[in-house]
Amino acid sequence: MGRTGAVTLLHRPIRLFLVALCVTPFFASAPLRAGDDEYPGNAFVKPRLALEQSALVPGKTSHMAVVFDISKGWHLYWRNAGDSGMPPQVSFKLPQEVTVGEPQWPAPARHVEGGMLVDYIFEQQLVLIYPVSVSPQAATAKKLSITAELEWLVCSDKCVPGKMSVKSEFDVSPSAGPSRDAELFARTRARHPERWAGRSSAFVATWRERELVIDAPGATHLALYPFESDDNVYPEEMVTAGAAKGGRLRLTYPESATTARTIGGVVAVTRGGKETFHELRLTPAPR
285 falls in which pLDDT band (50, 70, 90)? Predict the structure, then answer.
């Protein structure tokens, strides 16, 4: 997965090289001793599983979250990490009665490093919400066990890897009410992007040759968080051009964008002191 650089496009080998530069000094300066945790990032991230409702209901779809609590001064990465870093990796071990869908990512924050690199990060907490479906044949008055296998890279002035398995047993019931974590789900969804349908009251996006122009009348700030791209196509100059004061954002793409299947990302619009998030996907017009 390539990432957008400050001036030129960073391809996967370069991004991984930057990650290696971050991680290597930790191990060079503080070699692990016998008995030390093999994954020092576990000291700075505490993951757990949470359920939005008080129980899983047979025949229904509810929502589960992987919650990463992050130590002060450290950060994790978004689905497109940016110029360095890597997003958390999640896989599940599930009982046969349960299926889990794709993660719902909240919008990240921009993190500019040294005026040359821009990453998309989460501080304090990252909550990934997953739809969870339970078979109608699942027995009630029992518990179902779900295990998440997690890997991450957590960074401050250095980067260290983490890896952990977390397991929870959830009640199965004919009905369920809000859980004690229901408010956590509501706060997280406030940063989930809404789907953009071409034109909206939030903004208008126009593709002009190699330029994406986003107009949001009345906005005081705009930012674009680009999605990861199978075509390896990202906007240029994202350190300086990826966010702007006011209601217009101009983003220039490389020539390869004109043949890309789609381009897009999350557009953050601040208007009236409130920030909203919108998923933008479009097909570049042919030259």
Answer: low
Phi, psi of 139 (to 5 degrees): -75, 140
Q: Which residues does 59 contact at the CB level (< 8 Å), separation at least 6?
A: 134, 135, 136
- Using DSSP's 3-state secondary structure scheme, residue 40 falls into helix
Q: How far apart are CA 253 and CA 239, in angstroms?
A: 14
DSSP label at 53?
B
Answer whether 44's CB lies under 8 Å from 74's CB. Answer: yes
- 200 pLDDT more than 70: no
Which segments of the chain does DSSP mark as H helices, in order?
A: 12-29, 182-189, 238-241
Q: Cα 180–183–184 angle (5° rounding)?
A: 95
Q: Which residues of 73-87 are buried (b: 16+ CB within 10 A; e: fewer)?
A: ebbbbbbbbbbbbbb
**Element housing 144 (H / E):** strand 142-155
The predicted model scores a pTM of 0.86
Distance of alpha carbon 251 from alpha carbon 245, whole angstroms: 14
Split at pLDDT 50, 70, 90, the class of 3 is: very low
Q: Which two tokens stand for residue 54?
A: 């008080």
How would you classify residue 59: left for phi > 0, otherwise alpha for psi between -120 and 50, otherwise beta?
left
Q: Tell me if 190 sits within 8 A of 242, measured CB to CB.
A: no
- Where are the domains positioned within the chain? 3-189, 194-282
- The CATH class that applies to domain 3-189 reads mainly beta
Beta bridge partners of 130: 64
| pLDDT-wise least confident of 58-62, 101-105, 204-208 | 204-208
CB 223 within 8 Å of CB 110? yes
Strands 248-252, 263-271: pairing kind: unpaired
Cβ neighbours for 42, distance < 8 A, ≥ 6 positions apart: 162, 163, 164
Q: Quick one: fold of 194-282?
A: Immunoglobulin-like (2.60.40)
